[in-house]
# Entry
Amino acid sequence: MEVERVPLSVLAPTWMTDETKISRQDGQFFSVEGFQIKRSGGREVSGWGQPMIVQSTGYVGLIRKFGSRIDPDKLLVRLFPEPGNIGFIVDDTNTRVLVGPPIQFSTGNLENHRKAMRGELDSNGKPYKPVPFASIATEEKPTWVNFATWEDAVEDGGRFYEKVNSYVVVNVSSFEDVEEEIQLSGQPENFAWININHWRILRQSGLINGHMRAVSSLLI
# Structure
């Protein structure tokens, strides 16, 4: 992923700026809005103004296959590029790619997945594409899911306004159970099974993304 700084005006017409916010015309993903903090006990100053990111709930999860003393538990992970990442460096170039969880989608993605399952078409007359592993967050979980309980967690309140993500660790009994979903991603080469020692090395090397770091807390 190559990323270049540009003036905000270059982002139009997809993104627009008005007196209250910077947002996409279709309202998707997130907006940047202004907030005035009027009373703040226990902080360095009593009040201030700042922009904040307003974003709907995201869904983040790990998939774990239980192992044994000889063959330890395995975690399914995914290589994930994001424009703000300091990722793997290849030939002195920041690829923006970090290791993240296999389940990572927004509320909008989940709604599009439901539309795909119902066979609906988008505004261009094309079928909606199913989102890999999004069925885990729906009313009818896949049969291969042994256990999955979602937990809500508030994100960084210094940047996000009342932002909540929902996290889960999904337990499965075999690798084959999730293979179809991996193929559904269209990029199966971006997925891999690792054990906790591999995860620890990646964490210590600074090569896991924030979602991976947050959802890994459910393993404790």
